[in-house]
């Protein structure tokens, strides 16, 4: 089912600021008018992600977008950064924002104990049934 500019958009669940929701909705309608007929789901997801990332003024974590007719999704988001949208009767679009994790390690930090634990875990054979 290829969407047209007349395709109805329904927000099923939204947990984001109103300004972000409006930007998402505007980009959805704009993209539906200009989508190519081939690989349109991938192109729609890319356009939505790029639009939300571009509006990320506070430098918060990156946005992600999944578009499809049949998929399951289990994710953790940062809170106040999630939306599930129906495009027509069969296409789902889910966007979520994750927290950008930063790990600070000093040059003097001794990582040998960590490396030993990782190597030991990798070297252990798995018990066969």
Topology:
Layout lengths: L8 E7 L2 H17 L5 H15 L8 E6 L13 E6 L3 E7 L14 H12 L6
Antiparallel strand pairs: 1-3, 2-4, 3-4
Q: How would you describe the overall organization of this protein?
A:
This protein is an alpha+beta fold and 129 residues long. The protein has a domain at 9-97: Protein Inhibitor Of Neuronal Nitric Oxide Synthase (2-Layer Sandwich). 34% of the residues lie in helices and 20% in strands. It is built from three helices and four strands; from the N terminus they run E-H-H-E-E-E-H. It has helices at 18-34, 40-54, 112-123; strands at 9-15, 63-68, 82-87, 91-97. A four-stranded antiparallel sheet has the order 1-3-4-2, covered by helices on one side. A hairpin with a 3-residue loop joins strand 3 and strand 4. Helix 1 (18-34) packs antiparallel against helix 2 (40-54). The chain is elongated and about 60 Å long. The N and C termini lie far apart (46 Å). The mean pLDDT is 79. This is Dynein light chain. It comes from Panagrellus redivivus (Microworm).
